[in-house]
What does this fold into?
Amino acid sequence: MLLIYNRPGFVEELTEAEREALFGEVDAIMRELTESGEMVGGNALADPSGTKTVRGVDGQPAVTDGPFLETKEHFAGYLTVDCESRERAVEIASRWPDIRFGGHLEVRAVMDEAGTEM
It folds into this structure.
């Protein structure tokens, strides 16, 4: 799974041409992954301003606004890919255009019926 993190609002700071280029790159990567059969699924997430976080406090659930205090990045979306290797997943993540604008992607295996045997 490729977990996408970026800075809220960065897309609005881009020019129209930069936005079109960014979304064009995303579309090209998604098309490539679909055509190669590596794309399993994925979604962008809504702006974090409406997020609620539930934590345990003294054994009871406590609900707060937002994902984190004073965060500069947020979890923006994810892609699930089925690749031959972890290196291929890193290659895909390295091409994701958000990284040029201060974002980052986390590459992590998904546990399945095999449990912790990965």
The beta strands are 2-6, 39-44, 52-57, 60-65, 74-81, 104-107. The chain has two helices and six strands. The radius of gyration is 17 Å.
